[in-house]
């Protein structure tokens, strides 16, 4: 399963956001940052953060369906996924936990995403929303530290591409709300 998830992350197809970069990396961790301008207001973008099923790629879920994702944008809220099973026995996965929620401005989560979940790491995913142009600028940063068997420098560009894809999905969903 781990190799499949890594390959899925490595094959992420996406439209490039305005800014995407690995800002630091070492064997013990990495930091990535992606940003995009969105032609929508901050309230719309923040509300959509709490609806990942509308913008997160199904290719980057355990269940294969983004509709199975949920995120409660309050401290302690879960970014979780339901995994339907046989005979009505559903499984689940916690991708991250909300640690800071400032409506229309910032949402911060703690968790090891995707293949990092099987590693001994801590990750902090932050969404910053600020006014820009005819809408807002969303900066998504993810900082990961700990023991990564494959090495932080090796996986950082893959994680960067996958997260950039999700940010483009958020932009698309927010701008579709406006039209």
Automatic annotation (TrEMBL):
InterPro entries assigned: Polyketide_cyclase/dehydratase, START-like_dom_sf
SUPFAM superfamilies in the record: Bet v1-like
Signal peptide segment: 1-20
Presence of keyword Signal: yes
Recorded superkingdom: Bacteria
Any Pfam family the entry gives: Polyketide_cyc2
Residue ranges crossing the lipid bilayer per the database entry: none
UniProt KW keywords: Signal
Protein name in the entry: ATPase
Organism ancestry: Bacteria, Pseudomonadati, Pseudomonadota, Alphaproteobacteria, Sphingomonadales
């Amino acid at each position: 399963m781990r190799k499949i998830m890594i390959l899925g992350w490595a094959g992420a197809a996406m439209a490039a956001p305005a800014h995407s970069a690995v800002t630091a990396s070492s064997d013990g961790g990495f930091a990535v940052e992606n940003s995009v301008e969105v032609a929508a207001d901050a309230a719309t973008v923040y509300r959509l953060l709490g609806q990942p099923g509308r913008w997160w790629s199904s290719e980057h879920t355990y269940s294969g369906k983004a509709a199975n994702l949920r995120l409660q944008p309050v401290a302690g809220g879960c970014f979780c996924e339901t995994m339907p099973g046989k005979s009505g026995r559903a499984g689940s996965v916690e991708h991250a936990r909300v640690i800071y929620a400032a409506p229309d401005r910032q949402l911060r989560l703690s968790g090891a995403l995707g293949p990092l979940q099987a590693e001994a790491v801590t990750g902090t995913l932050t969404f910053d929303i600020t006014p820009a142009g005819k809408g807002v600028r969303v900066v998504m940063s993810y900082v990961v530290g700990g023991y990564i068997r494959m090495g932080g420098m090796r996986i950082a560009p893959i994680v960067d591409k996958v997260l950039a894809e999700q940010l483009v999905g958020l932009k698309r969903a927010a701008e579709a709300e406006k039209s």
